[in-house]
Amino acid sequence: MSGDGFAAKRRADAAEQSKSAHQDASLLEQLKAQAGSMVGMAGMFVVTILLAMKIQPFYNHDEIRAFGAEGSTKAGFILIELVFIFLFTALIIYLARRNLQKFIKWGVLGILWIAMIYTLYPLAAMVLVPEAPPLTSNDMDVSESYIVAVEEGGANFFYVDYPMSGNATLEYAGNAGEIEYWSHNITPEDGFVSGPVELTRSADGIVMCEGTQWVLLDADSGDVIDIHTKDCDVGLRQEVTVPEQPTQDWKWESCDGQDDIAQDWSITDIVLEPIPVINDGDIGPRDCGDGWLFPEAFDGKSVIFVQEFGSEHFLIVSPQWAGMVKFPTQGQQEQAQPGEQVETTWDITLSDGESFATATLGAMPGINVSGQDTLLLGTSQGRVMGWDVHENGTVEDRMTMELSDSVRGVLLADCCSGGSNDLWVIEGDHLRIFMGGGMSELTRSLEVGGDDPRISMALHNIENPDSTNDDAILMIEQYGEWTSMQYTAHPSDTSQFLIYTLPGLIALVMSIGLLIALIMRPEWYVINTVGVLVGAGTITMLGVSFVPWIIIIFMVLAAIYDAWAVYKSKHMLELADTMVNLELPVMLVAPQKPTRGRVKIDRRETSTSEMPMPPRKGLDETMLMGLGDVIFPGLLCISAMSFLPDVEGPLGWSAPIWVAIGTMIGSLVGYCILMTYVARGKPQAGLPLLNGGAILGYFISGMIFIGSSAFVFDISLF
Questions:
Q1: Longest Cα pair distance anywhere in the chain, in angstroms?
Q2: Mind listing the pLDDT tens digit for each residue in 154-166?
Q3: Entry pTM
Q4: What is the DSSP letter of 176?
């Protein structure tokens, strides 16, 4: 609830005595007399925001933001929320004036219950689940070695040593590089590797192209089985296949009429060309014609992924175009017509500057590793797109994950020999790990760094005698430099009951217990406990959903509304009176002397026509602060933690945390100024000073700890 008003409520023996005391007492004396309430209120203000900062990492994920990653920069959504606040306030006042307080009470209690769970759930998880050790990486003594293909499952991979030296070697390795299955010296026609090495696994072996020739290698030894002296960026081999219902005169022929011989293919630039058996070089007659054309968006020299599916299709991915391509012939001599394009069963073209950066193939998390294969493609604009692919060439939509930064690497591999793959994603500078059918993300991540737009990963399990789960070694390669990370399974990674079910049950029981206590015995300490929990949950869920500029707009508009509602229309005082009389924790209560008892307010003191008079020195009094006055400054603190650049700050804390602290200090300065007005006994709109102090604190601390980038966000209306 925004702008509940900020008021000092006092009990006095007589209004006339209070008025006389107010006239005689100086401001300093009034502040001193109310110091207990003011300090207590400031303490609850700070505790609420710090609690929100504590649980912020639990909710700081794109999937949890109220309007997703894209909605975090849309001012229209926050304006809609402000309209709903106005409507909610009007509804409360309308019901109160018609003596329908029971509807107000139970409706508000339901909202508060949900907000409490948002706070209690992560707190219970923090207590029950031991903190997992951070992921760390180690540099390896490897340079100028490039991973060119990672096989399904992530354990085995191919890499090329020193590709531009003239002595390049293709290595087939496993076990995170510990096992070298075989090596093959690359001897291109030009004396050096003129382009990227592309590999395709076929039934007969490994097809390699490096720009100047097509080579078939034995999958077990790396020996050369066949070779074509033909330029190619990608090579394929179509096996001899008999149709399900062959005609009587059907027979398998290569493109140049050779019987029962596998058809080899080359892809150069945007041309898919069959390779004849006899005249198989670049010089001489073209016995098989000019070939079939890929779409213009395809780039054969920058292929990201290629794999044959059955004997009739192959899947290929380039930066702007991907498709499941049908081999043009099925063993019948046939040539392409001029300009004829390849036939696809599925394809996709990216636009608006977006490009595919990385690819992986395998079973999705939660599915047996030998189950349905899914193609995952990561894009430069933060999307992970998935399709189920089948041997018959059909492709079906599977999933789309919207992330906030470019996806530089993806891998489907089982971290712990659990029988199901996990999804490893390098988003921007961080490695993120998703496990299980629910794609639950680990709280741990690894800072990868570097600026290679396409990062290769391979993973191998290693036995851990001290755990029921295996460990894993993850290899990361970018620009020929390698790092390794040893992953050790942790209870918080693998126990779904420990992570989700048990904390959820505890949060549910505690929240219901607090609601019962609030209804049965609404004393000030019960109201404050619930209020702090509700405030922290609300701050966090809204703070992680919008960038700082959107929150600042929200705060300015709310402050204007709060001032109007308190000073002009005065309906905020009526709203505060309603909530106090219903004993609802939409405010924090700071008694001058902490005693047992319910919060009661003399209606004379809440009248909109007569401002309450301060008590005589030493008399009992109670100060009230609406939760909105805590929530709005807290929103800016959490937003700063969630969206500012993650750079280092003093004392080992990140710069966004320091900006959040600076924002909170700024709001406390506004609070202190506010107290000079409240001490005089006047109901006071809190948001103008509190929000103003928080915004000023954000600007100052943002410039100190981060610089101009703390104020750069590409916001729009929708």
A1: 116
A2: 999 999 987 666 6
A3: 0.68
A4: G
Q: What size, in residues, is the chain?
A: 718
CB 85 within 8 A of CB 1: yes
Distances, alpha carbon 81 to alpha carbons 74, 78, 90, 542, in Å: 12, 5, 14, 10
Is residue 455 within 8 Å of 406, Cβ to Cβ? Answer: no
Q: What is the pLDDT of residues 275-327, one digit of tens each?
A: 888 877 776 666 687 789 999 999 999 999 999 998 889 999 999 999 999 99
> For 108-149, what is each residue's pLDDT tens digit?
888 889 999 999 999 998 888 777 778 888 888 877 889 999
As a whole number of angstroms, the distance between CA 301 and CA 303 comes to: 6
Instruction: Decide which of 544 and 613 is more confident.
Output: 544
Residue 70: C-alpha distances to residues 67, 382, 404 (Å): 7, 11, 8
> pLDDT higher for 461 or 185?
185
Q: Using the structure block, give the residue that is written with the tokens 């031991």.
A: 130
Q: Are strands 383-389 and 374-379 parallel, antiparallel or unpaired?
A: antiparallel
CA contacts within 13 A on the Cβ side of 352: 2
Rounded CA-CA distance 13/66 in Å is 49
Distance between alpha carbon 24 and the CA centroid of its chain, in Å? Answer: 59
Sheet order of strands, 395-402 included:
356-362, 374-379, 383-389, 395-402
Give yes or no for a contact between 628 and 4, defined as CB atoms under 8 angstroms apart: yes
CA angle 160, 161, 163 (to 5 degrees): 80
Q: Please choose, from the candidates 358, 350, 349, the residue with its C-alpha nearest in 3D space to the C-alpha of residue 428.
A: 358
In the numeric block, which tokens belong to residue 679? 């001490």
